[in-house]
Design goal:
mainly beta; four-stranded antiparallel beta sheet
């Protein structure tokens, strides 16, 4: 499962690379093709000067508008969106890939801060497999305590998404906790609850590195 999630992830389908013919008929009189110059160079000719070469760009910190990993904090990644102007604030979030007991990637969890004063202090986007029973919702709990249920918002080719709000009490619980559990139900096995470990190692330090996204403050 890709990361992105995140920023999930741009999820639009790529447009066809070659335009389709219009189907219009041409004039019955066909024009002869233009004669090719006798000195035409073969397509495989190598560039003669270094100015003809594409040297590429350094993508280590991501291009403008593209996410990149700025730092690691325990089991979390601090992922940021490169600012459009030098000196401008970046938009960053915490990201973790959740795996099952066989180390297979199953879900993605991306957490971001929200402006102060609202009911939610932070938000998170959770991506789970398409084969999830959406009617059963998703459960998030910390250290075995009674958790909260969250509804799924939509599905696409990547998976099914839940966009959840976290109160300040929820965030504080994540900071104090040792491990959180994300529980989903497979569509093919409605009697089975799949519990995924959401590590909280490094959560507090990582949370302190992210700020409210520019434009939301």
């Amino acid at each position: 499962m890709t990361r992105i999630l995140s920023f999930l992830i741009a999820l639009a389908l790529a447009a066809p690379a070659v335009a389709q013919t219009t189907g219009e008929t041409s004039d019955s009189t066909t024009q002869p093709a233009a004669e090719q110059p006798a000195t035409e160079q073969p397509a495989t000719e190598q560039p003669s000067q270094s100015g003809d070469l594409t040297m590429g760009t350094d993508d280590g910190e991501g291009a403008e508008g593209q996410p990149y990993t700025k730092a690691e904090s325990g089991d979390w990644l601090v992922q940021c969106m490169k600012a459009p102007a030098e000196g401008a604030d970046e938009s960053c979030q915490l990201y973790q890939l959740l795996r099952d007991e066989n180390d297979n990637p199953v879900a993605e969890f991306s957490l971001f801060r929200l402006p102060a004063g609202g009911q939610a202090a932070a938000g998170a986007t959770v991506v789970v497999p398409l084969e999830t029973a959406l009617i059963e919702d998703m459960m998030l709990s910390v250290d075995g305590a009674k958790g909260k249920r969250y509804r799924f918002s939509f599905c696409n080719q990547v998976g099914c998404f839940a966009r959840i709000g976290l109160t300040q009490a929820d965030v504080d619980s994540l900071k104090r906790g040792k491990a959180a559990t994300l529980t989903i139900v497979p569509y093919a096995a409605p009697d089975v609850k799949l519990a995924l470990n959401l590590s909280l190692t490094g959560f507090t330090a990582g949370y302190d590195q992210i700020t409210v996204a520019p434009g939301q403050q």
